[in-house]
Amino acid sequence: MTRCLRKSIEKIQANWDMWLTLCVTICVFFACFGFEFLDFNNIDLVMIGGDFTNCYLGSVFYRIDAWRWPPLTMQNLGYPFGMSAYGSDISPLMSFIFKVLHTVFGASPEWQFVGLWTLICYILQAYVSVLIFRHTSKNKFLVVCGALFFVSTPIVLNRVLVHINLQPHFLLLFPMLLWLNNKLGKKEWCYMGILYSLAFLTCPYFLPMQTGFFALLWYQKLFVEKQLRFSHFIAALLILVGIGLFWMYMLGLFTLEHKLDSGGWAIYGLNLAAFLSPSWLAPAPKPSTTLMIYDMSVYLGLGVFVLMFLVLPSLKNLLKKETWHRYWPVFLLALGLFFFALSPRIRYNNHILFEYQPNVYLAWLGNTFRYSSRFFWPIWYLIVFFVIKAFYTQWGKRAVLLMGPILIVQLLDIYPLLSFKTDILNRYHSYDIKTWTEDRWQQLAQKYTSFFCFVDKGHEYLWRQALKYRHPVSYGLLNRPNPRLVEQMHTIRAQILSGYLDPPYKNYLFVLDASIMDRMMSYANINPSVKKLLAHVEPLDVYHILEYKPGMEVKPDFFDRPRHIAAQNEDGPLDLIQVSPYRLYQTTSTGLIMYATIISFDNDTLVVEWDYGTAGVKTYKKHADGVYHFEKQEALCIIN
What we know:
The protein is 47% helix and 12% strand. The protein has helices at residues 2-14, 16-33, 50-64, 92-105, 114-133, 140-151, 154-157, 170-181, 186-200, 206-224, 230-250, 302-310, 321-342, 360-368, 377-395, 398-426, 438-447, 459-468, 483-497, 514-523, 528-534; strands spanning 73-74, 83-84, 345-348, 351-355, 450-453, 508-512, 537-540, 543-546, 563-569, 572-580, 583-587, 593-601, 605-610, 617-622, 628-630. Helix 8 runs antiparallel to helix 9 (186-200) and helix 10 (206-224) runs antiparallel to helix 13.
């Protein structure tokens, strides 16, 4: 026993940098978030709204759903078409584990796992950070300081209590460690397969970033050291591709018709102001209708800026031939990630500095990973790693004296963000459904088999009510839902705004949002069918309920014989299809169907109000060619 104790002490002494980093990480975690964060039954904790709550509620829908094939799919959300656990942003890995605990071991399906997952992410972040910074110095104190720079990174802390799927940055750091270790045997290939699998089961955004670090290692072994046979490389690469296809199938991405390309790359790119603007201290300017400020969460930190200043004399080493020869692949990787993160619209605050038109393949890739600002994350870690490495090399023994105070400067700089996260937990609240009109909800739950939710803000109330009665929900705030579900939602919305409901939808309880209600109130003055339908809308707690009633199915004129209206805007011809006296739609070049309400239509003028986007009210004047041409001046239409 004495010998075992002695060996344990020796191991601790040999790895005290690891143990100290883990101890600091865990202690700070509990000091900030408390032990109740890990309480599985602390449901109120996760009901703070936004994507955080959306992830939890979606996970509960998945857990109470029957087992299906593929196993990471469900029908309780996205009903009746079903959807992938990936498409609903519910953390497939943890949701699957807790579904097994529920179905096999009888655990409550409402257990929350976000606290446990956050702790796991930070522990693994600390662990791999120590292994990485052992490549910078043999001094264990300096290793601890460098690792804590990674553990305290604002880009992870910004995601806590917001996006649990974006917290596991250890999925970026382990590939970085494999590259630094410069080994590629069977064990390393297995690690790559595991890391790919975890990325598929948390957030696919990590996949191309992981591949970037793997590619650095592959290049080194294939072309520089020539230790890897090309045939072996292709075989191993095919296995990794097979792993990816396997998880795509298990997630239902082949069977449920999920569309990966969802657009928005030029909107959600990196803002150059983010480098100097801590998002918790300097809020971004209000976005205009044409320009949005994303993403302000890649701030390096004051401590990193201090280190950069102190290593300025060593920048000349970057120009040396041997330095360039060694590091040019990682430099090109960082440069590629940087320009992809910027998107085709390069911005500083609310100003566009430069724009370009990407080719079709780059546009598809960008629109698939549309929040491209996240691709700066690997660059953040590379910058901090090399700056600290250069600092240790340049300052030698003096680095031991300076590194501690610089780390404190970094931690003090991000403390307001940490305090903000702590305050959220201290003032969390639940969406209390006990005070609702329970008798009415119970009556509706017995009458209808599912909820059709048009609400994507404040939908948490309705989702909890649906979960209480184990009813499926068709829509809400969903991440990349089944395209057929989106088409169904647009169709039903268009019908309601025409004053019409189709009988096949009579088993749905329709829950309307404020946008639909405002439009119905306006259109009731010009469309008697909408006025009639509006009489069936019932305010209930924080929503408006629309029940199907016999007589709503009367079809308006033109419904079975749509009329084509030749029109033209500044971009070219339009084919406007009139499906009722008060509704029309057009199909865009990308396949998107856009609906509009006809405010007035005669032989001279067509005035419509589009349902989505910033189009608003538009006026089209009929010209001599018989085509209605868009007038650049928006019509000022007031519906009395």
